[in-house]
Amino acid sequence: MRKLVLLGPPGSGKGTQAVKICEEFGIPHISTGQMLREGHLADPELDREMKSIMARGELIPDYLMNEMVKERLRKSDCINGFVLDGFPRTIDQAKFLEENVGVDYAILLDTPEELIEERICGRRVCTVCGGSYHVSILTTNVCPKCGGELGTRADDTPETIRKRFDIYQCLTFPLIEYYTKLSKLVDIDGSGSFEEVTKRVINVMRSLK
Ligand code: AMP
Predict the structure, then answer these.
(1) E strands of 15-95, at which residues?
(2) Could you tell me if the CB of 156 is within 6 A of ligand 1?
(3) pLDDT digits (tens, 9 = 90+) for 17-70
(4) Within its chain, how far is the Cα of 145 from the centroid?
């Protein structure tokens, strides 16, 4: 059983590494940002309101996120574990997760700030399947997985990126201490290429029970 949470600032490569961990261990990748972008909130008006919060780089209220994640984790594909990417983002969300599901490890991608900026500026996402890539690995403007058109994320503007960082520092950074106290934090050096980080993550994951 592997119930995992990925932690790290915006642009630390959580999405990319989550895909690799999920391939290795055969567990689902649950990205709350992607779920919101796909419109998992049933009410269209609520969905519109939430998309405008996201475009401003702010956080969706905890109660909505908690319910969305709780429902997703009830699905049968989570029976052997999961990788949560983008959740929890606040102490309240983390407490909710511990009380309702519990996780085995919180993996922190400890990434230098210069690298983060470069990664976010080079990020391209598929407008069809939501796949996320760095320009350095792309040869055309189409998605390598589904052939869909690639674009930039609505919240990857310089102003919004700044806000997302500030929110990370204030609300999400304290999760490192929270999971450390629970002896669940696994700190991984997030510097170097995506492939180097993947090797580190997979090696560490294989060594954990
Ligand atoms: P991400 O794709 O993880 O960078 O998330 C994109 C945006 O979705 C965030 O900036 C938030 O507006 C929203 N979001 C995703 N996950 C959460 C969460 N756990 N709590 C609140 N808002 C979230």
Answers:
(1) 29-31, 81-85
(2) no
(3) 999 999 999 999 999 999 998 887 778 898 899 999 999 999 999 999 999 999
(4) 19
- Residue 188 backbone phi and psi in degrees, to 5: -120, 135
The answer to whether residue 123 is catalytic is yes
Residue 123 bridge partners (DSSP): 134
Residue 150 — φ and ψ, nearest 5°?
-95, 150
Using a 6 Å cutoff on CB, does residue 66 contact ligand 1? no
Instruction: Report the share of the chain in percent with pLDDT over 70.
Output: 99
What is the pLDDT, as a whole number, of residue 1? 65
Rounded CA gap, 43 and 84, in Å?
24
Residues 33/130, Cβ–Cβ less than 8 Å: no
- Do residues 112 and 33 lie in contact, with contact meaning Cβ atoms separated by under 8 Å? no
Peptide bond between residue 158 and the one before it cis (omega within 30 degrees of 0) = no
